[in-house]
């Protein structure tokens, strides 16, 4: 599982790790827009056996990082997906409702629900903010519905597959396009122009040995809109280049032991995000056919940077699952992650 | 001997916080003295200094004792000349303490004493050390020591090291401290738990406690080597975690405990004590949705009932939350519980099917390789398709068909959907006016569909009816004689099947059958002519 086992008492690492034990299970977490360099805000969704809550916390990075709870907002059901933009927060729940909140907190850090939508039947599994003027929210669910809501106007478009397909992840690619992920490692490219709908499908040429799985997370880099990064079952991380229609670019897989890709994990890859940190200065110099480095977290407790053709670099190897993480967009050296055993980890890279 | 040292260490490190406020302890005495220390001008004049020294020495905190001794006033540069003998005595005692023989491989940094690895070496050194103590005790230099407190204090310390029982009792507060001092200075050669229980009882008699601390009760049980008492104390005073883990400690190095704990008992349903308590703790863990995932760690070590209980825990988890399901499946993968894992996937599949999530249902049943259920739901799926054969509605099925073909081995009759989709595609091209090739391919697809046993009967007539244009292809017959015969046979079979009770009538115009018959007959005639 772990390629390089690390722990807090192993030889000094280049990055610093701070742990914040919580009293509740963490479902999801995000950085909020930075107000000042010395004060950062976090959004945390937690659950107990009886209730679910969305919290705002402030993080004081120096001298030792300290988390202070600011406010909390009770929710009717567990959060399944959480996304933020500089102005908005979108939170989807297991019971199928979608909440839109403003991400401009006032001084008390209070959260205010701007809109609530119940367009899904059953769990919403993915949500993303973007689209035209960045105020469109797309949500996908197990029920096979893809809903695009224009925040503020309240106009909505619903694509219903009537349960014939289930979608598990979604990410905007451009103001009019987004990509969805689903069962059988499927990816679908949607275009909202005209009648709207799926315009391109990725059905991987996986070969005989490969076991099918579920895409849990997708990401698209703003500078590489033609490439979609996906993470899912069996430690699988792959990229789909629209220009190379049906051939996946494997970054990690526990199923294919052909030596072309490393398996950073053997288990579910819960989240993938392009890593702005290492190559923030030289993104442009990487050949456009090469996949940019990405960070992943997994059920078997790995947080690592994966890069095409290179050994994965483990940032954390935990004895329990790492269920979610978020890279600070304004300060990409900082990553927060949520562990299965009720704790939050702040990782600061040098 | 190791035990004694570990116990001493425990006293020093941990027990003060356990008992603080409950009993007066030696540790609290020393802490109090430490606070006073700064205010004392002439430390050796104070009786508390000598009390602290003898107490620390009694429980073997040698480093503390030596540090305190070196604070003695005779060490001060302005005093050393006048108090030479006195200082010599203090230093002699400090030196003897520093050299106290200890039977262990090594000591951590800052700990005092001379290490001896084997018992004979240790015994020899011990006797020699005692000899030095006695010699110092009888030295005439004491007469030259004018400072009364120093003289008495040091003599008292020598008595402690020589194992004077009443001095040890005076120097200690709690019975555990007295117990330790006995082990250190009166019975230094004790190994194992021999006669420790008797000693403990004696110490309790000398230093009775008013209230019984639960840890003390446990300690008495351990010293008495009484597995049952230890277990009873664990379960009475501590939680199920303690008792589940106490097993590992009890069985290590005690064959009696091992027999007691590992013996399968019909009163316990044929399982042993160890398993019983692990099951009990796993039960506690599994009762909460956020801790149940830790239960498998314990259950996999329970040979008799662990698997059954684990299975139960898995089956209690909500299948509608797929993240929880995936976490369960991961545990199944780790512990190689393939059957339970595939059962969980079947549950998820059936749940999703019932709730109209057809795609997800097919996915989970495929993952579980559940051909029986896949075939069952295939029939229902076909009914659904059969009613809506238009090309528009087929578009909605694309996603599901993609999913079906993503699995290398499509279970059940569902592969029909794949072929059917191909056939419709070709047919669409034919209607769109694309040339001869498409018609040929459509015809081939039709034959392959009709040949395949997985094609449901209710599709036969609609397929043929949709293919009328192919059967009446103007340029040349698309089906040869044997192919036409095959199609005619199928039609015949269908007429017979109509008499069966489970026949589902396709939603087609009434003249459909006759027009297909006519087209087939015409095609047969043309094909014969062509050949």
From TrEMBL, chain A:
Transmembrane segments: none annotated. Its main location: nucleus. It is found in: Nucleus. One of its GO terms (cellular component) is nuclear pore outer ring. Keywords: Nucleus, Repeat, WD repeat. PANTHER family: NUCLEOPORIN NUP43. This is Transporter. It comes from Lithospermum erythrorhizon.
From TrEMBL, chain B:
One of its GO terms (cellular component) is nuclear membrane. It is found in: Nucleus, Nuclear pore complex. GO terms for molecular function: structural constituent of nuclear pore. Signal peptide: none annotated. Functions as a component of the nuclear pore complex (NPC). Component of the nuclear pore complex (NPC). Belongs to the nucleoporin Nup85 family. This is Nuclear pore complex protein Nup85. The lineage of its organism: Eukaryota, Viridiplantae, Streptophyta, Embryophyta, Tracheophyta.
